[in-house]
Specification:
The chain is of the alpha/beta class. Helix content is 41%, strand content 20%.
Length: 210
């Protein structure tokens, strides 16, 4: 019997933990059966604020995200409809004018540091995965990523980490680990955990195509 209902998988964990690598590995395995939503794309827009003020905002607090829009998009995707997902421009600390069409697929991955902090999001997840990686590894990965890909200075990355990323991780991200169904040490580099995840997704795909 074809149920037709997408499986929604949440992948959470600290900044630089390996969430994206795990998502990419899942996509590489299943291809077009997977759609991806990124919590970062749902940062609230601040067109009213100048860059100097946007730069000071706390982007690691739950209030930084437009979860109402994300929840609405998840519900539409579960109903089989496509959505115009916002995109975020890290270089200007604001939502871009561009959107990304996300078509409903049998499996939808939702990636983000704070997705388990929201009960409304948790209630919509069929599987909750927390990627657990040591803090020193995470900060090094974040440094490389933000300097190379997001055009940040080393000083700004370090300052942001110490003032918001680290305390917000301890206050919100780490405690949300208790909601996880699966905890994956070292993200995309854990073959045993990855095998379990692949098996669960394969079972869902088999049920929805029989």
């Amino acid at each position: 019997m074809n149920t037709g209902t997408p499986m929604i998988i949440g992948i959470a964990g600290g900044s630089g933990s390996g969430k994206t690598t795990l998502c990419e590995n899942i996509i590489a395995h299943f291809g077009d059966s997977i759609a991806v939503l990124r919590h970062d794309d749902y940062y609230k827009a601040h067109p009213d604020l100048p860059y100097s003020e946007r730069e000071k905002l706390n982007y690691d607090h739950p209030h930084a995200f437009d979860n109402d829009l994300l929840v609405a998009h998840i519900d539409l995707l579960k109903a089989g409809q496509a959505v115009e997902c916002p995109t975020y421009d890290y270089t200007v600390h604001n939502r871009s004018d561009l959107t990304r069409l996300v078509v409903s697929r049998p499996v939808i991955l939702l990636e983000g540091i704070l997705i388990f902090e929201s009960q409304a999001l948790r209630d919509r997840l069929d599987m909750k995965i927390f990627v657990d990686t040591d803090a020193d590894v995470r900060i090094l990965r974040r440094l490389v990523r933000d300097v190379k890909e997001r055009e940040r200075t080393l000083e700004s990355v370090v300052s942001q980490y110490l003032t918001t990323v680290k305390p917000m991780h301890e206050a919100f991200v780490e405690p949300s680990k208790k909601y996880a169904d699966i905890i994956v040490p070292e993200g995309g580099h854990n073959p045993v955990a990855f095998g379990m995840i692949i098996s669960e997704i394969s079972n869902h795909l088999h049920l929805t195509t029989v």
